[in-house]
Input
Amino acid sequence: MKLILLGAPGAGKGTQAEILSEKLNIPTISTGNILRAAVKNGTPTGLKAKAFMDAGQLVPDDVIIGIINERLAEPDCANGYILDGVPRTVAQAEAMEKADIIFDAVVSIEISDDEIINRMSGRRVCESCGASYHVIAAPPKQDGVCDNCKGKLIRRKDDAPETVKARLEVYHKETEPLKDFYAKRGILKSVENRSIAETTESILRVLGK
Ligand code: AMP
Output
């Protein structure tokens, strides 16, 4: 199963990707997590990406395509994968198609901008493993501590309200056209974002699982 999760920032792609990864037994590949790790480690990719990320803008396509080509070539991707946060532009989608990377399904998680702005204020992520939580909707067992790896939970810099607005604008302009791109290929499925469990159920249903 090769799957793309599409949706605005804060639509719950990361959370659903983690759940689906376990249920379907395939890895999740999140370019956001890969880039945040690169920034934290001060790698050349991280140095290139940091300013774009802090401003809520997209990292250039060539950087992303390089990351994806490298990651998808790893052995754990042989039986499929879930892409979270990539492709983010038509150019990225076209580059994957050119590289013969074909998907079984693209699931778009639908949610209003107002709901996103409300939610992002409560989002927390683990600074070590990237797992995401929400102070009300999906709290960790222990305040401020990751359930998976005991890492510290932090608020992402780009979850600040002004940056969230910029990211939403970028989503509507650059990423939303991907819905049309994949609808034309007959593989787009849409689900409404509800509670975490209901959204997972809807995704599994549209995937026929
Ligand atoms: P995310 O965690 O998916 O919300 O990504 C956080 C930030 O990383 C985005 O706002 C972009 O700056 C950058 N980023 C992640 N994935 C991509 C991508 N596929 N294309 C361009 N920029 C990306």
About this structure: The CA atoms of residues 145 and 160 lie 21 Å apart. The pocket of adenosine monophosphate is lined by residues 9, 31-32, 35, 52-53, 56-59, 64, 85-86, 88, 92, 158, 167 (CB under 6 Å). The two ends are 11 Å apart (CA to CA).
